[in-house]
Amino acid sequence: MENAKLIPWFILLNPLIAAALILFATRRDHGASTVISVMSAFFGLAASAVAMTLPEVHSSVLWLNLPGLEVPLGVSIDHLSRVMLIVVTGIGFLVHLYSTVYMEHDESKARFFGHLSLFMFSMLGIVLADNFAMMFIFWELVGVSSYLLIGHWFTRDAAGKAANKAFLMNRIGDFGFMLGILMLWSTVGTVTFAGLAEKNAVATLTANPWFLSVALLCIFCGTLGKSAQFPLHTWLPDAMEGPTPVSALIHAATMVAAGVFMLVRVAFLIGLSPCAAEVISWVGGITALLAALMATQQDDIKRILAYSTLSQLGYMVMAIGLAPDPHGGAAMFHLFTHAFFKALLFLGAGAVIHALHHEQDIWNMGGLRKHMPKTALTFAIGTAALTGFPLLSGFWSKDAILAAAYDHSKVLFGLGLFVAVLTAFYMTRLFVVAFLGKPRTEAAHHGHDCPARMTTPLIILAVLSVIAAYGTTHWFFAHEHGINWIVATLATGAFAVGTFAGYTIYNGKDREPLSLPLFRNKFYFDEIYGAIVAGTQDVLAYIAAGVDALISGMGRALGYAAWGAGFTLRLLQFGNLQGYAFIFGLGVVGLIYFLIFR
Amino acid sequence: MSALNLIVLLPILNAIVVMLGAPARKSALLSSWAQLALSILALLNYDRTLGGYQFKTTLHVAPEWNLNLFMGADGLSLVMLFLTALVTLAAVWVTPKIEKRENLFYACVLLISGGAAGAFASLDLFFFYAFHELALVPTFLLIGIWGSGERQLAAWKITIYLAIGSIILLVGLTKLYLAIPVAARTFDMTKLPALAKGISAADQASIYIWLLVGFGVLISLFPFHSWAAPAYASAPTPAAMLHAGVLKKFGLYGLIRLAVPMLPEGAKHWATLLLVLLVCNILYIGLVTIAQKRLDTMLGYSSVMHMGYIFLGIAAGNVIGVSGAAMLMLAHGLSIAALFAMCGTLRQSSPSLAFTSMGGVAKHAPFLGYAFGMAAFASIGLPGFANFASEMMVFFGSFKTGATPGALTFSGLQIATICGLWGVVISAVYMLRAYRKIFQGEPLVGSELVKDPSCCVRWPVILLLAALMLGGLWPKSFLNFIQPSVEALIAK
User: What confidence tens digit (pLDDT) does each residue in B66-124 have?
Assistant: First the structure.
């Protein structure tokens, strides 16, 4: 049993050691750095597989121990973290493998792998954390590693800007998150999840429902940032400036899902506050809808997928609000299946971008089906899973969310169904334009499947996208849940309508036939936020700087006044020690004066 | 003669030797290494099970006034001495070739270190004050003689401000001394807290405000902060490192050592004022920092801003908050010293420190890109560095005081905490923007001139960052010393 406690610690620390080794020792040796990082990802996967077989394990040490504040560093393997571990380390390993080819000729390959391992460490910390404070620590650390990886090609101005934007949006969310943690802690006196779930703590928290709602919504702000929910969603599409494997791992499968994971961790509290749950479900629903609308008019293959990720995360958040289930529920189920097919889609997009020499505009592709058959087939499977093609993994998990909506809110159910239509529509558009028809550019003619180390992850993920929903539902639901035939039929109908519309509109087209500037320009959120920042922060900073010049000027006036006092002139002859000795002496004399003549 | 005396005496004696003509850089380096070794030795030899003040030595100076050179250290002072020694070593190490009056330059640097160490090691109120004054004078000289830009104006401003601040502080300390019954009057800081129990609330309030303003000027508390940014921008690198990193902490140390245990009623009386001022330090100065267009003034203002968090911890008045404040003094000192050290490197090779004239520096100077990034991340409170752990303690501590569990009403301190949390967003705005402009993007013309620094800058920066990471990953390494001292101070 004692040995079992070492396993979560090993899972947590192993990527940290790899990252430290690479960043501090082997940064100049690309080969060694790659091997270290990939090996550590493999060990992480192996250890997580072992953890699946273990009973629940918990181990912690006190990190801070002050009167009234105990912050443990605790790792726990339970039903939630087990599933998440497999997702993170499994996809993590595949992405590492894939990156060995994708980043082969990058001049900062070692740095890339170092940061990737750092990300694994941070993400696994969130997964294993047994308390809010530790989760916040790793929450910030994933923010850092995401910043570093988005800005990997830092000499590109857009990459630096996107990295900054991601970090700042997350910090705004974390402002609320930390405040929420403080509110809960100041009431209950503990930051551990187990402590918050105790009877007394729950009784104290529910004594004032408003307080609990506000605290939970503050904590939910963390999710707004990390999972890029409306209104803090604008950073995720820009984050596509990072290398594509990063987009697959961090900005599709794992880190952005951390917000959902965190909400599931505190689902027992959300369940106690109908008001907070309502807000959460609506924020999720609105995000799902807005992002899906924006996705219909994007041309960059990665951005389409990014908006799709936003939309699917919105589904998950909505599901938590509708039916908070500490066991995971529909939200965790969808998180699980989505991780596979979205990682697959991103890695497929990466294979296309790699083969076409950094071409990302789908209108410059076309006909890739012939030249890249393996990529096209796996991409098709990913698309089918995402759009809810019957019996694939995405179908089941989306069905679970829609069923929850059907039971709790008919409005959100309608909204969810409409988003399903849109999802099928924009994904069909993407697939038809990029993979079907004739090549539209020279680069698209010369597309080719990538080496085995890149296609193998695609094939594995494609298989998982098909089967992931079978035999795994008991991880997410305490009770066997039957299929809701009405919902399933309607969802299948939504899939059919969306796919049919997408196919008929886009098949054989060489240019965008629809023009919807509102969606194309993402509802002008970036412009609006830019104006808000310029109108508030920049103006305030300008005013503050002006006021400060004034205060500073008064200090200067003081200086001139003293200047006039004669003796100071001598002080200005710098190098003249007496002046300073004089001031020093003045102090001492003053002290003595007060002592003697009090 | 204990290790403690040596930590103070070494730099002072060395300054004299250097003035007499000894090879300046070599002897300064040697004595700072010795000082660092001694400060670590003192930490290791400090008996934590016993606690309290240890390594006590007394030299009678003026028995008729009960005036003694009384030295001793508890965990808090030892951590501050470690900070002093480490930053001194880094400051001496990174000093570039000095063209004029090299010996005087190093003597000044050493005197700052000796003065600061003396203040942290003194248990006698008079010498506590006098050592700080001893350290101030060479600071003015360094800025005035070896500074850059508008050095005369900057030197003049800091001189006026800090001299006035010192005099206000002196009045406050004298009032404190006089508030104790004649028969019991003493400069002994170990005995003062017990004696101060008898001071009435009204007297406490009137003493406290003098101390707050006096120390406040030295710490750059709003609105007494205008000396800081220009002084740090003009100061030669080692002076900026030592003043912002170490000497400025004297005021905070004084508040924790004197005001927290002796004047609790006074603190209560002026609590609202302090909260308003410290929120100005965080939010208002934060905005001013955003408006800065040069790296050196931006770092100067950011250092002013971060004082607000330390004040917040002190205002919390509980063990969590004050320990966090003390830990943040260490963390801020280390991180700002590292930032100023690298800012100095940039100043030497880059044509200008304006954000618009730099870009892509990380491409040609990867070490600088990394190390500056780490120090910048440390200073904006990212986990893994001591600043995060300290700020977390400060926030927890200050949010606890005056909290009504389960109610949606916030006390003044809690509102200040919320403002402080927003300050964390502000500091990310200016720090990341500066980092992006300087280090990321396509290298601008002139930026390719910036190459990675020599070992003389690398190693000190690495040492500072390593200490920050030690405190960040395992806060107890320092907290084990700080916390019992703070508990003792607050219990009284």
Answer: 788 899 999 999 999 999 999 999 999 999 888 888 888 999 999 999 999 999 999 99
Residue pLDDT, tens place only, A501-530: 999 988 888 888 888 888 888 888 888 888
Across the interface, of A66, A179, A541, the residue whose CB is closest to B291 is A541
Task: Please write the tens of the pLDDT for every residue from A401-453.
Answer: 999 999 888 899 999 999 999 999 999 999 998 888 888 888 778 778 888 88
Tell me the one-letter amino acid at A33. S
Residue of B440, B462, B478, B479 to mutate, interface with A, max A Cβ within 10 Å = B440
For the record, the structure tokens of B220 come out as: 């750059």
Instruction: For residues A44 and A12, give the distance between their C-alpha atoms in angstroms, rounded to a whole number.
Output: 8
Beta strands per DSSP E along A131-268? none
Q: Which B residues, 123 through 142, put their C-beta within 8 Å of a C-beta on chain A?
A: 126, 129-130, 133-134, 136-137, 140-141
CA A234 to chain centre: 12
Is B411 an interface residue toward A (CB < 8 Å)? no
Q: What is the ipTM of this complex?
A: 0.92
The answer to whether the pTM exceeds 0.80 is yes
- Point out the residue among A68, A71, A588 whose CB comes nearest to the CB of B400: A68
CB B438 within 8 A of CB B445: no
Helix axes A255-265, A329-355, angle to 10 degrees: 180
| Pick from A137, A144, A559: CB nearest B157 | A559
β partners of residue A65: A70
Task: For A7, list phi and psi in degrees, rounded to 5.
Answer: -65, -50
The Cα B364–Cα A287 span in angstroms is: 42
Query: Structural domain boundaries of chain B?
Result: 270-492
Q: Across chain A, what does the average pLDDT equal?
A: 87
Query: What is residue A298's three-state secondary structure?
Result: coil
How far apart CA A561 and CA A554 sit, in angstroms, is 10
